[in-house]
Amino acid sequence: MALRDVIPCLKSARRLPQEDAVVVEQLSNETPETEEQILKIAVPMLSRIANSDDYDPLRMERNVELVFVPPGTPIPRDSDAVILPGTNSTLGDLRFLREQGWDHDIIAHARAGRKVIGLCGGYQILGRRIRDLHGVEGPPEEVDGLGLLDVETEMLTDKTVRPLSGECLDNRKPVVGYEIHMGKTTGADTQRRYIRTADGEDGAVSADGNVVGCYVHGLFRSDSFRAAWLNQLRQGVASELLYLESVEQALDELAYELERALDIDALLADANWTWTCQIESGIFKWNLRNPFETRMKRDSQM
What we know:
Order of helices and strands: EEHEEEHHEHEEEEEEEEEEHHHEEH
Number of domains: 2
Helix content: 25-40%
Number of helices: 8
Low-confidence stretches: 294-302
Oligomer: single chain
Shape: globular
């Protein structure tokens, strides 16, 4: 097969939401622009980390140093906040976290009066106990969590998957995100909820307000919530980043660079795809014809 084109390194792709642990080692951002405004936010790299695009908006904040802490490395003691991420195996990553000594780091961080937030599986790990009586993640067992939230989680066989929107009860800012988890969390700290949606309330807040957890992914994509959360850590540190607009801009730049680098017509000709154009009411309508779909439809009618 002949080489048609070579696609150059596309820097705009770095601004797109990232996949899970495949690229998480590359997600720590560059040095922030203003030394006096630097916030250091640490994210332990759990072995089964999930939904790592939760942190892309923070990575793009110019005054935030987002540090993904690799296994075998202590969580930096000068971190302003620790985010305990989601995981594809809460109990497995709770053991992994303890093997790294991160449990001591996170507990010390919270006792020093600094912020800790747990998302989904990270929320479950922050509680007093996790019960997997149905063997959802392996052999049935009960395990103590970090005990930073007065809650307990029971693993359930049914998975909750749904989009949601609402507001953060801490800063009264709107949030949009989604849930995808197995488990129900209850306990005294759930009397202080973190998120309210049309379907109810979610999350828990410690008595001193320094430790929070919830099941909502995508929190930091909401610009006003993210700005308020960062400014609680240090007033005035949040930028005016419009995250979703920046993603759209990155997609436009990516499309432009690909169009410059590739001979699209030649590639379509190689694949025997064709463009057709119709004019309806003065509007050009382009259609891409796939010969394989046409052949499959014809074969299915025989």
